[in-house]
Structure formats: structure tokens, C-alpha cells
Amino acid sequence: MEHLQNTNIILGVSGSIAAYKAPLLVRALRQLGAQVRVAMTPSARQFVSPLVLGNLSGEPVALDMFDEKIQQGGSWHIHWAQWAHAMLVAPCSAHLLASLAIGLCDSIVGALALALPRSVPLLVAPAMDTTMWEHPATQRNVEQLRRDGAIVIPPDEGELASGLWGVGRLPEPETLLLYLDRALGGHQQTATNSKDTRIEAVLSRSTMPLAEAVAADRLTAEIELAQLKGSTHGRLDGKTVLITAGPTREALDAVRFISNRSSGRMGYALAEASRDRGARVVLISGPTAVESPEGIECIRVESAHQMLDAVRQYRGQWDVAIAAAAVADYAPAEPAHGKLKRQQLGERLTIELVRTPDILAELSNAKRTDAVLVGFALESSQHLDDGIEKLRSRGCDIAVLNAFDAPNSGFEGELNTITVAIIEGESVVRHAYQPSPKRVCAEHILHHVISLLQQRQQKH
Fold first, then answer.
1. Do 327 and 261 belong together in one domain?
2. What is residue 259's three-state secondary structure?
3. Which backbone phi and psi does 346 adopt, to 5 degrees?
4. Which residues contact 164 (CB under 8 A, 6 or more apart)?
């Protein structure tokens, strides 16, 4: 926790029964060497005393925008925001979460969050009952905050104030401190192997063991995603990004088809990440169960031929093309009309297959010299070179190799284990990444796309 030493932290507290943890958090931060200023919403005062938080922090507690105790020549919220190294909102009620998502300054906590410079991390720790947390409106607000670069700390599962059991508990102070430490530049650490005796001593009387408080991989992914978004935010403004995603289905008859296990989620994650960077996004998707993202032109297709036709409609219009679709290599030469009857087929069925159109070749032929083409290959960890060579021969500037034999990775896994190869003639520069959620992988890929796109356009 050395990255909390000599830092300035704003703690925003909202109306929630979990506000009782705020004094524990302030005490722990002070004992770890941080300076803390507390801001409270009006409803927060119903759950915890400002006097307690003021005594523990050693600073006046901000209760109202026009509170005389915190006025310092006017615009105090700007001065606080400039003073802070990070801001943590814990607990964050559903009401405050919605306000933060739309930038509403209906409380001093909301005003402080909006006044933070982009370089100052904003961490939000929601706390509410499970039904409120799972409501679509809440999830939209969470996603909006993440798009804006905030770090949303997932709530824990456990007994809630209602007496019910579910997801919605505010994580324990040690979990919140781990997030703060990482956001301020701390090294990756796991919950079960922490040897920081100072933090354990500070919290030993008031919190559960680290191993029960947080899953380290979830923490790492949330921090990494927010940091990656901040590093590439807004650099695709005015650009058109064309993305193919999902599988294709090649008909055998009216009801049967040849396909694969692609979920399409990697392509959809790339589409959302590109949209969040200001790009016009055209997503050409094979059949998936993933909903079409808002703010994206989504074209649904079935077969490889339909995908090719859709790609051709945008010939010459795109600045970046990402071929993430898992297109079937072969299709039945003559699909049957109607349904094939089992009784008519006998014991053996021979089907003539023909090559499907090469969509990546179509994209390569249409690529402008200042554009960037990204190809995907699913390979075993031992055969990544084969994937790079295949994509190089088809005109790709960037090859993304997805290792299907890595744990929990590939088509149906929650994670992807990718290697991003930058291809410049005979030169190949590789960047290997640890298993990560697909949205984090999308951020890694876009980082390289944006860098190469800028280099190309500077030459033209």
C-alpha cells in the first residue's frame, strides 16, 4: 500500500446503511499516510455523523456547496478537485450513481466528481439491494461511468440491509484500499498473498480477511480497463471503423447448417470500445445472442456470402477494418430446398463442400494506404507463428492471435489470451498479454490500432 503514502484523497459518502464503513475507511487511509477530505450528500448524514468523519480526517467535512467552513476564495470544489490525487465514492447509492452517470451536480459529491481533472482517478463503489443493482437502469449507469473512465468497484455478495442475501454489499475497507492503491500506480497484488502488515494491523479489528474480501483478477481487470480507456480516449474522432463479428451459418437445407462456436463477443467489445473513442462504427455480425450495442450501425447477416456483400457496401469508406468474424471455410455446394428427410438419406450422407469467399482478401484489396487492417487467427499457443504468417500473406497490418488452448479462453470462455503482432514488411513486433476479459483485450488492440493509424496518416 505504499502508493497511498503522502496522497490526497477525496471520500464521497452517500445515503446508504453501508455508510457506517466510512469512518473505518478514513481511519485506515490516515494511518497509511494519506490526507483525506470528506464530502457528504444530505441523506448520508442520516447514517453517519459528519462530526465523526471530521474528527477522524482532521479536515472540515463538506456538507453543502455554500458551507462557510470550506469556502476558500470561492469555487472550493475546483480547489478540492485540483488538490486530490484520487476520489473514492463509497458507498454510492443508486441515486448518486445515476447522477454521476449523467454529470448532474445535484449534490456536492456530484459537483466534485464532475470537477476532477481527467488525470485524477474516480473510483465508485455502489451499494444497494440486489434488485436495484441488477435493474437495467443501474447497469446502464454503471456502463456509462466505465465508458467515461471511472473505475466501478463491483459490490460483494452477502447479507443485505433488507435481510436478504445477494449482490449489493459495499466491499470491506481493505478491498477499497486495494483499488485505490492500484489506481494510484500500485503494483499488482493478490488478495491471498498480501504481506502488508501495516494494512492488516490497521484493519484487523474491523474487517474480514483479504481472501474473503476481493477477487484479485476482477480488481486488476477493472483498473486496467479504466487506465486503458483513459490512455486512448477520443483518438478515433471522425474515423470510420468497420468490424466483422460472430460466426456464419452455411445452409445444408432449410433447417440445418454448418457453423462454429464463435459467440461474437470479442467483435462486439471492439465495436463498443471504438464507439467510445468517437468513431463511427459499422458492425457486420453473423448470428449471435449478443444485443446490438447502442450508437453503432449493426448489420445482421447469416452466411459468408451475405457478409461479403455487406462488407462491399463500405468499400473505400473505412479508416480501420477489424476482421474478427469466424467465417466458415466451406459451405455446401448445393443446399437442399426444404428439409432433408432422414428416411430418404440412408445410412451415409455425402455432402460436397466448396470454399466460401475470402472476406479478409476483399478488405485487403479495398484498403487505402493510410488505413489499418486487423486480422484475427485462432491458434494453439505453440503455433502462433503460423497465424502471423497467414495474416501477413493476406495483407494485414496487425495480427491478433487468440490462443484457444489457454485456460478459460477462446470462443466460449470468459477470457481471451491474445498476442498482438504489428506487421511492417518482414518485421514483426509482438505484444503478448495475460488472459483478460474480452473488453480489456479490445482496449489493448485499439491501443495498437490507434498508434499505427496515427503513424500512417502522418505520412500522408
1. yes
2. coil
3. 80, -165
4. 129, 130
> What SS3 class is residue 142?
helix
Mark whether 220 and 252 lie in a shared domain.
no
Q: Measure Cα distances from 198 to 65, 202, 267, 422 in Å.
A: 36, 6, 44, 44
Residue 237 CA to residue 278 CA, distance in Å, equals: 4
Q: What is the pLDDT of residue 303?
A: 98
For residue 207, what pLDDT is reported? 38
Whether 137 and 176 share a structural domain: yes
Nearest to 39 by CA among 79, 12, 71, 8: 12
pLDDT at residue number 161: 84
Whether residues 20 and 92 fall in one domain: yes
Based on the fold, state whether residues 293 and 218 are members of the same structural domain.
no
Give CA angle at 76 (70, 80), nearest 5°: 95
Mean pLDDT by 10 residues, the chain (460 residues): 86 94 94 94 93 93 81 78 94 96 93 92 94 92 91 87 87 88 59 37 39 46 56 73 98 94 94 91 96 93 98 96 97 92 82 96 95 94 89 96 79 81 92 86 92 81
Q: How far is CA 30 from CA 91, 177, 347, 437, in A?
A: 18, 12, 77, 34
User: Does residue 253 sit in the same domain as residue 223?
Assistant: no
Q: For the chain, how many structural domains are there in total?
A: 2
Query: Cis before residue 335, ω within 30 degrees of 0?
Result: no
Q: What does the pLDDT read at residue 408?
A: 63
Give the structural domain span for 448: 240-459
Measured CA to CA in angstroms, residue 153 lies from 168, 179, 278, 332 at distances of: 11, 8, 25, 49
Contacts of 102 by beta carbon, 8 Å cutoff, 6+ apart: 144
Catalytic annotation, residues: 260
Residues 198 and 293 in one domain: no
